[in-house]
Amino acid sequence: MAGQLAGQPILILREGSQRTKGREAQNNNIMAAKAVAAAVRTTLGPKGMDKMLVDSLGDIVITNDGATILKEMDIEHPAAKMIVEVAKTQDDEVGDGTTTAAVLAGEFLKNAEDLLEQNVHPTVIANGYRLASVKAKEILKTLATSVTADDRDVLLKIAATAITGKGAEASKDTFANLAVDAVLAVVNTENGKHTVDVEDIKVEKKVGGSVEDSDLIEGMVIDKERVHTNMPKKVKDAKILLLNEALEIKKTEVDAEIQIKTPDQLQSFLDQEEQMLHDMVNKVIDSGANVVFVQKGIDDIAQHYLAKAGVYAARRVKKSDMEKLSRATGAKILTSLKEIGESDLGKAGLVEEKKIGDEAMTYVTECHNPRSVSIILRGGTEHVVDEAERALHDALRVVGVAIEDEKLVAGGGSPEIELALRLREYSATLSGREQLAVSKFAEALEVIPRSLAENAGLDPINMIAEMRSQHEKGKKTAGLNVFTGKVVDMLKEGVVEPLRVKTQAITSATEAATMILRIDDVLSSKASPPMPPGGPGGMGGGMGGDFD
User: Fold this and answer.
1) What pLDDT digit, counting tens, does each position of 386-415 carry?
2) 378 and 266 in one domain?
3) Catalytic residue at 99?
4) 314 in Cβ contact with 227 (< 8 Å)
């Protein structure tokens, strides 16, 4: 980037910086975005394949989840990163449809490329896309059907649709039931509006057994055992104390030196330490607590006294678990033992230690606040359990979203085909070049049913032609059954998903695509040259001498 001034070139960018502009910059960005979309496209649908990602440390992730794949891929290109953001937003907002969102964004850009070649200005394309996106959401609303928290069968179908095509598909029914039961247990209703916080559902992974052995517990499961074998294994009518402080003697903050000259002094020093621990434990026992969860450590002597008093204690409990326990039992998390009142304790009908596989865990059930549940996920290997957790997360989120919004659409590519048809009709009503952009937008939506067909090894052209003709006849829910290769009514098949999955995917994909389109100049600065070893001066920071 240099200007001429009296024959002297003026450099404004640092040496080595790069600049691409105009069509070249647009092509680069679009190519990168298309490449990312292509990477996840094969995972779409019930017959989609999985990806195996190996990071620099050799850790392996095997997954079908679009957001996870894009997050784990180490993506350098700035435009490609924006597609990753689309999938991330989709995951945060709805939990499912991440692959759909990324693939749509790629396809919108690919179709915009054709228009750019016909010299349509990027701003015109962006405007057309925006119009189409708004219209698409209006049309989607007309396609949606209602669902309420009482329609258990429909909720099961929503969960099953989210799980289909993921590694956990073999035990789809188990998972769908787990997801629906868990979400229904934590629904919060205020002023007739339902909200679902998936954080209230704790998922504990345990390798061993099979996915079928997964279980829903009404209450909390903490991955900790009691600290001392003499403690009771089972405590009924538990009064629970949650402590953020360690039941240990604090080391002095200041470097203090204690001189002990005789064995008696040593003995009295040790006795005093023991007495302090005894007092601590007494405070706990006097409060009436018979179960203690400590976020930090518990000294051996304190363990002995607690066990003697018949108190069940667990240590080094995760902060997130402490917060969930607090919600479930009504206990306050105390930072000090100074004052413990009756009101600080939580209640639960039963606290017991149970073995799962070869590990002991603490179950807190019959809680005073029934709105906390735990799911124990089992699976043959670690990777199976991890992928099962991702599938379950998607199922929990979509069931939650369906209960919150109370709106559903059919799946199997049917809404996309319907939208494409309606948007083509809409484009004919527009004058000017936006018309071209809207019809390209409509065409791009068909990438979803096309990918579903391709991934299932079916002929995409025949399938889309068949779907279009059914939709032309007014069958708005006709979609592709990838297992039989036939176009059928998706509502009857039970392939349904929340409306928000579709609207969010279209919104975020359109926004990302229009943003990338409007970029016509990419300035990338070069990193500073690396420092010579030893910092400036080249020799131990330019100063001699030893530092201790």
Assistant:
1) 888 888 888 888 888 888 888 888 888 888
2) no
3) yes
4) yes
Q: Which residues pair with 201 in a beta bridge?
A: 373
Residue among 42, 63, 68, 98 flagged as catalytic:
98
User: Out of 91, 200, 223, 394, which one is annotated catalytic?
Assistant: 394
**How much is the CA Rg of the chain, to the nearest whole Å?**
30
- Asked whether residue 154 falls in the same domain as residue 40, the answer is no
What is the three-state SS of 26-83? HHHHHHHHHHHHHHHHCCCCCCCCCEEEECCCCCEEEECCHHHHHHHCCCCCHHHHHH
Burial of 366 by CB count in 10 Å (0-12 exposed, 13-18 middle, 19+ buried)? middle
Say how many Å lie between the first and final Cα of the chain, rounded.
Answer: 50
The pLDDT of residue 422 is above 70: yes
Inter-residue contact 224 to 369 (CB < 8 Å): no
Q: What is the pLDDT of residue 398?
A: 85
Alpha-carbon span 70 to 515, nearest angstrom: 19
Same domain, 365 and 233: yes
Q: Which residues contact 174 (CB under 8 A, 6 or more apart)?
A: 211, 212, 214
On the 0-12 / 13-18 / 19+ scale of CB atoms within 10 A, 78 is middle
Q: Look up the CATH number of the domain holding residue 89.
A: 1.10.560.10
Same domain for 233 and 314, yes or no, is yes
Marked catalytic residue, from 42, 68, 89, 99: 99
pLDDT tens figures, 246-266: 777 776 667 777 777 788 878
Residues 233 and 360 reside in one and the same domain: yes
- Dist CA 17 CA 495 (whole Å): 51
Residue whose token pair is 């018309």: 435
- Separation between Cα atoms, residue 419 and residue 144, nearest integer Å: 12
Strand-pairing partners, residue 347, are 239
Distance CA 477, CA 425 (A): 18
Q: What is the pTM of this model?
A: 0.78
pLDDT tens figures, 340-374 = 777 777 777 777 877 776 777 788 777 766 677 88
Q: Is 451 inside any structural domain? A: yes
**Out of 42, 63, 65, 510, which one is annotated catalytic?**
65
Q: Is residue 83 part of a domain?
A: yes
Residue 65 designated active-site:
yes
- CA–CA–CA angle 391, 32, 460 (5° rounding): 60
Phi, psi of 515 (to 5 degrees): -65, -45
- Tell whether 132 and 263 lie within a shared domain: no
164 φ/ψ angles, rounded to the nearest 5 degrees? -55, 135
Q: Could you identify the residue written with the tokens 């490449």?
A: 35
Question: Cβ contacts of residue 311 below 8 Å, gap of 6+?
Answer: 231, 284, 285, 289, 290, 291, 292
The widest CA-to-CA distance across the chain, in whole angstroms, is: 101
For residues 10 and 79, the model is more confident at: 79
